[in-house]
Amino acid sequence: MSLKGKDFLSVHHLTVDEIYQIFDFARILKAKQKAGEPHPLLKGKTLGMIFQKASTRTRVSFEVGMWQLGGSALFLSSNDMQIGRGEPVKDTARVLSRYVDGIMIRTFSHLEVEELAEYATVPVINALTDLLHPCQAMADIFTALEHKGELKGRKLCYIGDGNNMVNSLLHICAKVGMDISVATPANYAPDATIVEQAAVAAKLSGSKITILDDPLAAAQDADVLYTDVWASMGKEGEQAIRKQAFAGFQINNTLLQAAKKDTIVMHCLPAHRGEEITEDVIEGPNSVVFDEAENRLHVQKAIMALLMAD
Ligand code: CP
Ligand code: NVA
């Protein structure tokens, strides 16, 4: 079993063993980093990072992660690249592959990332598309593992928009045997193909998937409560209509009471306080949102090292 040379586009493509291989390695790299022990596994290697959307956590965690691994990272804004002026993705893939050892991309269309990966001869990492956010979901479930000690049989409840975040959470929960209940307004349900993919994985792992439109019912006995913005990047024009549609799809104190007493509250960030989550809950004792943000660094370092190291 080796991830070397592979792409990282979706958790759906990973085996359960590969997920735990990444988690185990992330734990080791996190300990080394905390102890100040050098771990230059990617010495002399370069990561090209293409961004067609804004980012704080993803950009900084990948860039700092490459430095900590002894390599370097290039921030490539699509506004400044020829890809932003219409150069084909397949040409960009082959050109960059002649310069760098790995490509990370954040963009709109998931198909574009698949095309990039098809033509690139170096590993491609999906750092968010409209469909998926696999690096975030890996960091989140690694965080849940740290807090809960085990994943199988635990329940994650996602409240809000059926977006890239819940799609990747469905993939990973189904793989690792966590139950997942999702509450979205009826018109904003998760992608049907993704739900089917998760259902297949859930059969193997014993995980239970429930898709509802009632937040309180979904939150019953949850070990993890998760939410994300009502309007993702690219949907800013729908903000007003979404505010109406999502009223009530909020992690607040009432919802917290429905979950287990020791539930942990997660959000991939950036958060909109007063919309999908209240100030008191995100700042309260159940919230682990900054642990999740930190773990982006450690989990992505593990992914990059496993994909790109000699
Ligand atoms: N969670 C996340 O991906 O954050 P950024 O958009 O800041 O990268
Ligand atoms: N669903 C959000 C996640 C941001 C990290 C978005 O796509 O904008």
Report on the structure:
With 310 residues, the protein is α/β, with parallel strands linked by helices. The chain has two domains: 11-133 and 296-308, Rossmann fold (3-Layer(aba) Sandwich); 136-292, Aspartate/ornithine carbamoyltransferase (Rossmann fold, 3-Layer(aba) Sandwich), CATH 3.40.50. The protein is 44% helix and 14% strand. It is built from twelve helices and nine strands. The protein has helices at residues 16-35, 57-68, 89-97, 110-119, 134-148, 164-176, 192-205, 215-219, 239-245, 253-258, 279-282, 289-308; strands at residues 46-51, 72-77, 102-106, 124-126, 155-159, 179-183, 209-212, 224-227, 264-267. Strands 7-6-5-8-9 form a five-stranded parallel beta sheet. Helix 4 (110-119) links the parallel strand 3 (102-106) and strand 4. It is globular. The model has no long low-confidence stretch (mean pLDDT 98). Carbamoyl phosphate binds at residues 55-58, 82, 106, 133-136, 268-269, 296. Its main location: cytoplasm. It is an enzyme of class 2 (transferase). This is Ornithine carbamoyltransferase.
Secondary structure: helix percent: 40-55%
Overall, the morphology is globular
User: If strands are numbered along the chain, what order do they take across the biggest sheet?
Assistant: 7-6-5-8-9
CATH topology of the largest domain: Rossmann fold
CATH architectural category of the largest domain: 3-Layer(aba) Sandwich
| CATH class (first level) name of the largest domain | Alpha Beta
Cofactors, ions and other ligands in the entry: phosphoric acid mono(formamide)ester, norvaline
Secondary-structure-derived class: alpha/beta
Tally of strands: 9
Largest sheet: 5 strands, parallel
| CATH superfamily heading of the largest domain | Aspartate/ornithine carbamoyltransferase
Poorly predicted sequence stretches spanning 5 or more consecutive residues: none
What fraction of the residues are assigned to beta strands by DSSP? 5-15%
- Mind telling me the C-alpha Rg? 19 Å
Average pLDDT rating: 98
Question: How many H/I helices?
Answer: 12
The topology string of helices and strands comes to HEHEHEHEHEHEHEHEHHEHH
Tally of domains:
2
Q: Ends: how far apart?
A: 15 Å
GO molecular function, one term: ornithine carbamoyltransferase activity
Protein name: Ornithine carbamoyltransferase
Main location: cytoplasm
Family: Belongs to the aspartate/ornithine carbamoyltransferase superfamily. OTCase family.
